[in-house]
Design brief:
This protein is α/β, with parallel strands linked by helices. It contains 15 helices and 23 strands. GO terms for molecular function: intramolecular phosphotransferase activity; metal ion binding.
Length: about 475
């Protein structure tokens, strides 16, 4: 007797699938690597992955031209496997995490974050915003897409709509004490990304804040600058806007608005490590002894301050899957990364740049000093930022660098690449990329002169092995 089960989707070449389904998310060039058929298969495979514990999946998308159609195709794949879809429409990534936590259901966010307009992708999570990465489901999804996702012989799922934007804003404000703050003018560069959608909903109702918006128009072609504030060139417009408007603070968000970068009243960028230290101090103020996660290339000022404030610092590898895993394992109250991702236990352990921004605004508004003076309390060292070397023999270059520093080395550890402690607050980390012929260097020391000396020695040693190109990481 023939089965009534619907046929599997067509198989796909493994190399093509693995180019798009990466370690942390799904991402590729629209039309070449990522199309509606492929996304429908991913939706079906994701539905099969979470089916045992879920009946519905929340789906949101950013302002990219391709996002609505791709989100609809994903929903079709989910429905074909018998699960319902709740569409939250235009959203930031942390707004999607909020929906996942609020409805206690898995979620899918269509975005390519800070990548150029030609790209798109999907960030997936389980119920309660728990991340889905290579080891927690993406490998299974990739295998099913390659083999052909099995069909489903049950009833189709449904589609409904739910607007969670106002609830998201109200929830974030409930996590930070905002009454009684002094009046502040806040310049915000949305970069034509999703912060143009979420900032009015979150900051608009705060009486002490006057917004000075920049590039709030949603436009996935990014006509003004790339929505990647980690690249210094993309902060210039905000820096000028802060000075032109006399703002007390500037905030810049990436395309999906899950990362937040801060500029002081003088137009100077504030280190994400300093922001991590400030937020950690605030969170420890309400729960003394709590655990705070920091990745290994944030400033040493972070664990120092956490310890001084009675907390327990825990060091992590670089990458949100490691941070989120440690957040869950340790019950940490907060976690921060050098890349301006900030994670909160009260936000289901997920990251929210907007919530970090609220903490900085509250800290600024609770006292009378300008932001530059406030943040000086959390800035103890000088740093190089991340520098990438394009090399042919990465491990050999690392070995050469260790030999070059020789007797200056106090200690080594290999949590993620190699971290070299040179004493008196000076250290550097060298990590090899898993996907590219790159070495990533981060240096910190007490003075810029010492940072420059260490960077120069590493650069010269790497170059001595053969042609190498160094550039600041975007």
């Amino acid at each position: 007797m023939r089965s009534s089960r619907k046929p599997s989707s067509p198989s796909r070449p493994a190399a093509a699938v693995h180019r798009v389904i990466k370690a942390y998310d799904v991402r590729g060039l629209v039309g070449e690597e990522l199309d509606e058929g492929f996304v429908a298969d991913v939706g079906a495979a994701f539905a099969r992955l979470v089916r045992d514990g879920a009946t519905q999946i929340a789906v949101g998308y950013d302002m990219r031209e391709s996002s609505p159609a791709l989100a609809a195709a994903f929903a079709e794949g989910v429905n074909a496997q018998g699960l319902d879809v709740v569409r939250i429409g235009l959203a930031s990534t942390d707004q999607l995490y909020f929906a996942s936590g609020l409805m206690d259901c898995p979620g899918a966010m269509f975005t390519a974050s800070h990548n150029p307009a030609a790209y798109n992708g999907i960030k997936l999570c389980r119920a309660g915003a728990k991340p889905v990465g290579k080891d927690t489901g993406l490998s299974v999804i990739a295998e099913e897409v390659i083999a052909g996702v099995p069909g489903h012989d049950g009833a189709r799922g449904s589609v409904s709509d739910r607007d969670v934007l106002a609830d998201y804003g109200e929830f974030l404000r409930s996590l930070v004490s905002l009454p009684g703050l002094r009046p502040m003018k806040v310049a915000v560069d949305a970069g034509n990304g999703m912060a143009g959608h979420t900032t009015p909903a979150v900051l608009g109702p705060v009486e002490s804040i006057t917004l000075a918006p920049l590039f709030f128009e949603l436009d996935g072609t990014f006509p003004n600058h790339e929505a990647n504030p980690l690249e210094p060139a993309n902060l210039v417009d905000l820096q000028n806007h802060v000075l032109a408007t006399g703002a007390d603070i500037g905030l810049a968000f990436d395309g999906d608005a899950d990362r937040c970068f801060v500029v002081d009243e003088n137009g100077h960028p504030v280190s994400p490590s300093a922001v991590t230290a400030l937020v950690a101090a605030r969170e420890l103020g309400r729960e003394i002894g709590a655990t705070v996660i920091h990745n290994l290339i944030t400033s040493r000022a972070v664990p120092e301050l956490v310890t001084e404030r009675g907390g327990t610092p825990v060091r992590s590898r670089v990458g949100h899957s490691y941070i989120k895993g440690l957040m869950a394992d340790t019950g940490a109250i907060f976690g921060g990364e050098h890349s301006a991702h900030y994670y909160f236990r009260d936000f289901w352990g997920a990251d929210s740049g907007m919530l970090a921004a609220l903490h900085v605004l509250a800290a600024l508004g609770e006292q009378d000093r300008p932001l530059s003076e406030l943040m000086a309390d959390y800035q103890r060292y000088e740093a190089s930022g991340e520098i990438n070397f394009t090399v042919a023999e990465a491990q050999a270059c690392v070995d050469d660098v260790l030999k070059a520093f020789g007797a200056r080395i106090n200690a080594l550890d290999h949590l993620d690449g190699v971290t070299v402690d040179l004493g008196d607050g000076a250290w550097f980390n060298l990590r090899m990329s898993n996907t590219e012929p790159l070495l990533r260097l981060n240096v910190e020391a007490r003075t810029t002169e010492e940072v420059d000396e260490i960077v120069g020695r590493v650069s010269a040693t790497v170059a001595a092995r053969g042609p190498a190109r160094a550039e600041a990481a975007p």
